[in-house]
Design goal:
The chain is α/β, with parallel strands linked by helices. The chain contains eleven helices and 16 strands. Helix 4 crosses helix 5 and helix 4 crosses helix 10.
């Protein structure tokens, strides 16, 4: 039997997270109660915490995996003791948006189906969550050989796979992935697995090294390589300027230009640069431009005359959940390599701070409510 109360990290206003004691959610006959084992820190939640986009109180966290502790009387297919990865958004599949496969625009999809209390907001920064009936089709069992962390990272992998499916690519095409944080590295790996030639960019050499290991055919640091310490015994010759992308891309694509560019950083200047580097009829995909109200100057003739598509992709597609699970659980995409920091529940604020301001040695940050507080 679960306890009557639990610990949860409650959002109380912009940049304010507090560890509190709250009631364990009550479940209905068609719902699950899950004890949270791992929850990834996602930029979407960071944005809500930083900018106060939703009224408090809330319990955030949606990249969640854990153990079923109770299944409602009407639930079929899940039972107590099973290890599961959760999926917090599932569309109705019947509305006008769904018929156009614009699932993220579906009214049901925009409801969050997992909560630890207060207004549903994911709830993964808590010890227990309630899983509502309409999101049960997205719940996936975690195989015995795989970890809760692998289960928790199904959701971000799903978002990337959905985005890649929006691109009109042929095997052997050349794709720029701008930014090699956790999401950028997932793009690099999945595109490489699909037979694309990926050029990966990032400001941190360690991330570019990992991008190579994830399948990038070429890597580029826009700021140039960091200089190594000079020896005292001999002066260093001046370092030649690093080539820029405008020089590298024609060589990489044999003069054709990029077939697509994926922008995983919210940098407007990178969008303009990518537009110039893709070939006529190519595509630029925005994945990180989620803050509204920014005015970005674009050369719209490149969209009209050059037929360069500017497209976006947001959130996940539960219809890709089984394929995502196969990739992650088979370790074709070994998401364990992305996780650099784990924090117990009481240190969720520290986890969010690190994910907000990453260090050279940090990538994916995960909160582990079931781990010892040490």
């Amino acid at each position: 039997m679960p306890p009557s109360t639990m610990r949860a990290v409650v959002y109380r206003g912009p940049n304010t997270l507090r560890l509190e004691t709250v009631p364990v959610p009550r479940i209905g006959p068609g719902e699950l109660l899950v004890r949270v084992a791992a929850c990834g820190v996602c930029p979407t939640d960071i944005k809500k915490i930083q900018y106060g986009l939703l009224p408090p109180p809330r319990i955030f966290g949606h990249e969640t995996a854990g153990t079923v502790v109770r299944a409602g009387a009407r639930v079929r297919g899940f039972r107590a003791g099973e290890r599961v990865a959760l999926h917090h958004h599932v569309p109705c599949l019947q509305c006008h948006a769904c018929r156009h496969r614009a699932f993220a625009q579906c009214a049901q999809y925009q409801r969050t189906g997992i909560t630890a209390g207060f207004a549903p907001a994911g709830g993964g920064y808590a010890e227990y969550v309630r899983v509502m009936p309409f999101v049960l089709p997205g719940v996936v069992r975690i195989p015995a050989r795989n970890s809760f962390i692998e289960g928790a990272l199904l959701e971000p992998v799903n978002t990337v796979l959905k985005a890649i499916r929006r691109l009109a690519l042929l095997r052997g095409d050349s794709v720029l992935v701008a930014g090699q944080g956790p999401i950028g590295l997932i793009f690099t790996r999945l595109l490489a697995l699909a037979g694309m030639r990926v050029i990966a960019t990032d400001l941190l050499p360690a991330r570019l090294k990992l991008a190579r290991e994830f399948g990038a055919a070429a890597v580029h640091c826009p700021a140039g390589p960091a200089p190594s310490p000079a020896r005292r015994s001999a002066p260093r010759a001046p370092r030649p300027a690093a080539p820029n992308l405008a020089t590298l891309i024609p060589r990489f694509t044999r003069g054709r230009g990029l077939d697509a560019a994926v922008i995983t950083v919210p940098a407007d200047d990178v969008v303009g640069e990518a537009q110039a580097l893709v070939r006529g009829g190519g595509q630029v995909l925005l994945f990180a431009h989620t803050r509204r109200g920014t005015a970005t100057p674009l050369d719209l003739a490149t969209v009209c005359v050059d037929e360069k598509d500017l497209i976006g992709s947001y959130s996940a597609d539960f219809q890709l959940q089984a394929e995502t699970a196969r990739m992650v659980f088979s370790r074709q995409l070994d998401v364990r390599r992305l996780v650099t920091h784990q924090f117990p529940l009481a240190q969720t604020a520290r986890a969010v701070e690190l994910a907000t301001h990453p260090t050279p040695d940090s990538l994916k940050v995960v909160v582990t409510p079931g781990a010892p507080e040490g």
